[in-house]
Amino acid sequence: MRVSIDSDLCIGSGQCALTAPGVFDTDDDGFGVVRSEGEGGADPMVKEAVRACPVQAITLDED
């Protein structure tokens, strides 16, 4: 699975980094970023982070 964050939608709530800190982090401006270059879909908390995002900026694609 491949995970990504749409930077145009992200509002910097930080829910992704709080929910799955092994996969997500925040940049210097507070917006969400994927730590592992999009390959963090194996973490069981990624689906919860997708649900927790208030603006649905996280995409999880099953390859």
Helix and strand layout, with pairings?
Elements: E1 2-5, H1 15-19, E2 24-26, E3 32-34, H2 46-52, E4 58-61
Antiparallel strand pairs: 1-4, 2-3
Protein name: Ferredoxin
Domain 4Fe-4S ferredoxin-type: 1-29
Keywords: 3Fe-4S, Electron transport, Iron, Iron-sulfur, Metal-binding, Transport
Helix content, binned percent: 10-25%
> What does the overall shape look like?
globular
Question: In order across it, which strands form the biggest sheet?
Answer: 1-4
Radius of gyration: 10 Å
The secondary-structure class comes to alpha+beta
Cα end-to-end separation: 5 Å
Q: How many separate domains make up the residues?
A: 1
Annotated CATH topology: Alpha-Beta Plaits
Overall mean pLDDT: 89
Oligomer: single chain
CATH architecture level-2 label: 2-Layer Sandwich
The CATH class, by name, is: Alpha Beta
Order of helix and strand elements from N to C terminus: EHEEHE
The biggest sheet amounts to: 2 strands, antiparallel
Q: Uncertain spans, ≥5 residues at pLDDT below 50?
A: none
State which percent range the strand residues make up. 15-25%
* Number of alpha- plus pi-helical segments: 2
Task: Tell me how many strands there are.
Answer: 4
Organism: Streptomyces mobaraensis (Streptoverticillium mobaraense)
Keywords: 3Fe-4S, Electron transport, Iron, Iron-sulfur, Metal-binding, Transport
GO molecular function, one term: electron transfer activity
Pfam family, one: Fer4_15
